[in-house]
């Protein structure tokens, strides 16, 4: 399977400022060194309680927030520096690639490092910057087309004063995906594809229900011809009956257009329904990364086990063991030492408070960050 997005050691910290001079007094460590991959055509589910960093991860991926550090590779191009000012972009390239090229053995390079090393070898350091920093405007525009978002709240994500036709066509016209002369025809077909009558394009958002507005949000994303759609709690604000309709629509569109989804939700049952692979996040870290089958058949991280035990079971006769976690999620300003889950973990041992467990592969494709994986039964 082809990797569409590769995230390496992504960090996003937000400063907290206080006082007359607005000095930085602390940092919110919203996303703290996470690495993962999204394969073409799949749905990657990202799950965790609120405050675990999943929305920040999605927003940073889309470059609605600039990453503090780390690397975001899309379609085998490093996109991390696309939205930086030129001098910063150059610094980034120097730090990430040139240093490596000058000090490490080129034979060990793989993937993007190998690809960029070829450019460096052929053109030298200056030429390398010139090649990678050329046409940045076009690259940004291409990036914006490739990666789209469907927001959580269908009530506030559509401007109430603007007609649907403009809302849906604004982005595609700006990025030259469609011509002005094609607007009516394209908007009509995009709306019809999501189950809304084409003539309704002249209406305003308040004339639609929540489910219909979310469909309009999907049509807006779709018209850009994206490869990846980040759906951030896209069905959380909808009624349960409407929720499944919207999810099924998304699955149909995925098949038809070969879309890739990053589906972010706090609701493990929704994630279970839609995802092929699942990432579980806790306090800015990935604690488990596995295929849906592996994760549900054999969750290895105690936090994942606890989340699963909270899914309601339709049959009341079946009494499953509910795992109740102690306390609340700690603050991401001062996360606990060692394993961030240790103050709430029912099977924590001494080492857990001292040493941070790394995300490691236990069985092929099943990664977990725990010193004692599978110990919570
Ligand atoms: Fe629990 Fe220790 Fe595993 Fe953390 S490393 S989840 S504290 S057992």
From TrEMBL:
It holds the Pfam family oligo_HPY. Keywords: ATP-binding, Nucleotide-binding, Transport. GO terms for molecular function: ATP binding; ATP hydrolysis activity. It comes from Thermosipho atlanticus DSM 15807. This is Peptide/nickel transport system ATP-binding protein. The keyword Transmembrane does not apply. The keyword Transport applies. The lineage of its organism: Bacteria, Thermotogati, Thermotogota, Thermotogae, Thermotogales. GO terms for biological process: peptide transport; transmembrane transport. InterPro entries: AAA+_ATPase, ABC_transp_ATP-bind, ABC_transporter-like_ATP-bd, ABC_transporter-like_CS, Oligopep_ABC_C, P-loop_NTPase. Residues 5-308 form the ABC transporter domain. SMART domains: AAA.
